[in-house]
Amino acid sequence: MEQNSEIIFDKLVYSCAFEKYRGYEEFIPEHFLGFQLSGETHAFGVEGNMVIGENTVVLVRRNQLIRTIKYPSKSGKYQFVSITLDREILRQYALEHKIVLDNRPEIKQKVFFEPDDFLIAYFLSLGPYINKTKEATPKLANLKIREAIELLLQSNPDLKQILFDFSEPYKIDLEEFMNQNYMFNVSVEAFAKLTGRSVSGFKRDFAKVFDNTPKQWLRDKRLNEAMYLIKQKKEKPADFYLDLGFENLSHFYYTFKQKFGVTTTEI
Fold first, then answer.
1. What's the CATH code of the domain at 194?
2. Distance (Å, rounded) from C-alpha 4 to C-alpha 79?
3. Predicted structure pTM score
């Protein structure tokens, strides 16, 4: 399998795979706009699941945990192009255009839609930067992000409710959030941000709620779920270890034996 992910000035991303590729969990810190050129992306998150088909544009909101599976087209090719909508540029744009948010309820769901001719042409225009036939200077990257903002607002003015909402995640119920998201293999820093806390505040509140450290609690929670899947559901570790947040199978087997004193085959 050949799989590439390239970041140009932390703004433009292009990825390509030639067989089914199981993506890892990702913390999405900024909004991004993507276009599925070929193949299909299946994305799984707490807010729901979605399938991004060929010739589909998707606007993914910031501050999310997402797991992806990438499927190539019949020709064996997977291509997804995305551009990060940098928060500082969004702030500058909102200030320059005197954008004020309405009091209407914010758009909650992920937004994906069929692209118009302008959006298709826009993503095709990123090709020279990806293929390195044109240098993507910081100034050009800034202009391409602004162009994306203009095209999004042209296609749907209500998207301003997403693009220019700069509020930070509010402090949410830690116990509920962790029980819903323990299977995502992301950093403590990401968990802290998503729950509206500083890292020190997250660790302090975590100890009060769970009487444990985040690392130890996550390990035990994942292993207890693994025991349930093996013993009650008769599932094989190879089929679920990634979904429970373990990086590799050997690490799973080691920690499982360490906690329960038996191997998975002895159960």
1. 1.10.10.60
2. 10
3. 0.78
